[in-house]
Amino acid sequence: MASMKDAEPPKFTVDRIISDGDFVVCYGDMTMKGEDGVEGKYSYCDFYEFAGGKVSNLRSFVVKYKSEGEIAKGKEATA
Prior knowledge:
Layout: E1 11-20, E2 23-33, E3 39-51, E4 54-64, H1 68-73
Antiparallel strand pairs: 1-2, 2-3, 3-4
């Protein structure tokens, strides 16, 4: 985490929020700069569980969008 102290925070868009009792799912897109300073585009899905009005559990999945060059080279998406 210390290496991220000067990192620019990611920018999020929220496509949908789904809730059921103490569980909430949120998904959308985000952009963030890598260590090389190049901005990458990602898709995310977060699963939240609440207890006592606070987040008690979070599971997050992030997948990088493939660039045209990566598709041509047959590279897989990273998570």
